[in-house]
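Team,

Forwarding the record for the chain on the shared tracking sheet. I've put the sequence and predicted structure together so nobody has to dig through attachments.
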Amino acid sequence: MTPLRDTRRIQIAAIGISLALFSAFDLLILLVTPASERGTALIPPIISGVIALVTLPFLLSLFEKQQMRIESQQTEIETLHAMDAAIFGEMELPRLLPVAAEKAITACDAEASGIALFDPATGTLLGEAYHAPDVPPGEAMGRFTSLVRGGNAKGDETWETLVAPLLGNIKEGGADRVMGYLLVARRCLPGHPFGKNERRLLDALAGTLRLAVINARALVAAREAQTVREQLAEAKATQKRDHALTRAMTEGLLPQIPARIGAWNFSQVYQAQSDEAPVGGDLYDLFEVSPGKWGVFVADVSGKGLKAARQISLVKYALHAYAREHVSPAQVLTHLNELLYDEAEVTGFVTLFYAVLTANTGNVVWASAGHETPILRRASGQCEILDPTGSVLGAMEDMPYSEGCIVFGDGDGLLVFTDGLSEARSATDRRELLEVEGVERELQALFTPGTGDLLHPDVPVADALMNSLQSFCGGNLSDDTAVVWMQFTPQS
């Protein structure tokens, strides 16, 4: 039994009791009235009874309408509360939209409902959901989908629609723009249009859905931001770990070259771009090839970081092996080029200068694979540039390499360096490079003109050049730098 029927029975009972009491009161008055006056006394009660009987249906109808209005409002409130609880219980769009579509059907007594969300700035579809339990897939459902995406409030020959736009604020301009539509529909039937109650409920549901969508998108944005922060932190930790490993590998590959071997003096220095920047692939080495013969090389691997360090490690130990098999520097570079070209993990290229010297004579045989041109300074102060004798290593197969010979006199020296020295940028004008000419100028400034004697013998040549480089670029190196100086001084 419905609450409306219960209320009606209570109303009828109350009116009946009132009439009974009223009649009893009239009967009591009639009994105490003298017999001669009783006829006249009956007229008012009869008139009152007739009026009561006539107005009774009207009063019952008023009571019923009021009760229906109260119950309708209560139903709307309960429905909205249930919808709010269900919608705000879902914080992700893939689950939120289907729940809202289902609740819209219940609230508006519809046959189908749909939600389409768009990016207010670009108009691209962000998400959609449909609920039509009694509508089979086919043409009717296809039409309904088109109505939802277009926010069609007029419907078509199949569907009668009710639409509530979902508005979102765009910062540019500050005006609300349509971010989607909430649409409910019934198949067109005479006498069954959507009413004011359905309109109110749909608008209220649209407001709830809009807030829920904003919250869901904010949650997604917060999660994405957190994921990005975690990824950045992880990448930073990985980069820091790789950087430390790369630096350890690079420093482990750089030997401490003896200051003197036979008639030769040596000095060397390696300077990373900075403590934070990824270490590059610069390397130098001095090693004994055979009794009385020594190999010296300076190399530069393209790229930076752990990968470059691995490649320069391969270059170092492969060159050691080939140098002990082949006396000719050109043959060593040929075999090294074949190895690097065939090595799948090697990317980019390698420049390398390699020379073989005799400990107690000034005879040097050398070859250069696209390396920065070394500077040969004679004791007289004259300088010569040693151009490459072949292309960079690992770039092309079957690359031919030639070699050159130099006879060093007393006080002659050779400066071998990577492009971090020649391509250093001026602190006063970042467009100005030191270049090979600048390196030569700085090298000449270290010696007494026309001799092989250093102005400051206590400062090794490589260290002095690095000091000059730091002064030129203001301590802001643009690349890692390796420098090796070898000078023939048999009388020392």
